[in-house]
Amino acid sequence: MNIKNVLVAQSGGPTSAINASLAGVLKATIDSVEFDRCYGAINGILGVMSENYLDLTDKAAKDPDFIKLLTHTPAMYLGSCRFKLPEYKDDDSSYSFIFSQFKKLNIGAFFYIGGNDSMDTVLKLSNYAREIGSDIKIIGVPKTIDNDLCHTDHTPGFGSAAKYIAGSILEIAHDTFIYAVKSVTIVEIMGRDAGWLTAAAALARNSYSSAPHLIYLPEVAFDKERFLTDVRNELAKRDNVIVAVSEGIRDKDGNYITSSKAMADTFGHQQLSGAGKALEFIVKENIGVKVRSVEINVLQRCAAHLASRTDLDESFAQGKKAVELAGEGQTGCMVVLNRLSNDPYQVEYSYAQIKDIANEAKSVPAEWINESGNDVKKELIEYLRPLIQGEVEQYYEDGLPKYLDISHLNRC
User: Fold this and answer.
1) Residues at the annotated binding site for Mg(2+)?
2) In which residues is substrate bound (predicted)?
3) Structural domains in the chain?
């Protein structure tokens, strides 16, 4: 019997939990009877096209702590890319080469860990495999702090990012409230089309702080005059107002509220910057109080020191589930989470067809946003809160967090 190997790659933006999914794939491969070695492609699908691989099974064999450290290392151990495969009916040269690499490495299953654009790659490779009659299993493992993948309750990486955002808002509140002067602090949070991350700012509220006092998501058309009215109303009640805003807020005509012109990436997504700064200028010009904007930016993606235990555990489990599904013969699918209950919090692991997921986006439900469009409802809080639970043990060396060596990504 010719036991096959597996190949895994990572794509898109980094998170605190994507390496936990990679660790899950590796551990499940080592423990499986269906597969032998686990190879990792450097820099996503481009690593396959450039024949740039790591033998992860060998690394785990040489270092007994490798999987443990991999689980706790933020960002992407295998590196990433943002590369859009052409349609194979237009040009199948890339596909032909990729599948020749699968044959060369004796690959029986390919796992792609990533978000929406990565699932586009899974869909295209799955369709090509079916077209040529290949029995290689192609499976997506979800990852995105944006939490916008369809057919899954939530995505790996989101819970840790949500925890960091809530913690940051709480710390900003402590910083801001010390001054008995009228002020507005605007916190810009990632979220181009979906406001899940910005909504997580509401988790910062506790018995002594109601910050953030206003929350604006891209699901609701932004209105400048309504915003000014909201801020003035909050200033009438308190000295310090904290506003959480998604980078992707736009007006009723669909125009982004930014302080700089947006550019597009290879998938056609506009790269946004300056929504918080734009609102800072609006407040400064129309209200005249002390105002500042804070752009959390990339800090919310890989803050492993404030990762969610729930997030890492679920990410690891979804990596393992992908290998299990491949062993059962599933392909052209993505691992998904189904929530069974909020209290006690319970989920189950399953899969959904990739054709129903790729190139789609899940928004915050309208019924979870208040009627004024400047806050979220308790149903959304109840959905979010379980995802940030639990603390992660951190390893230190010379006073700093200890992570895996990533010099193989070169230029480090």
Assistant:
1) 116
2) 144-146, 190-192, 247
3) 4-144+304-360+392-409 (3.40.50.450), 158-300 (3.40.50.460)
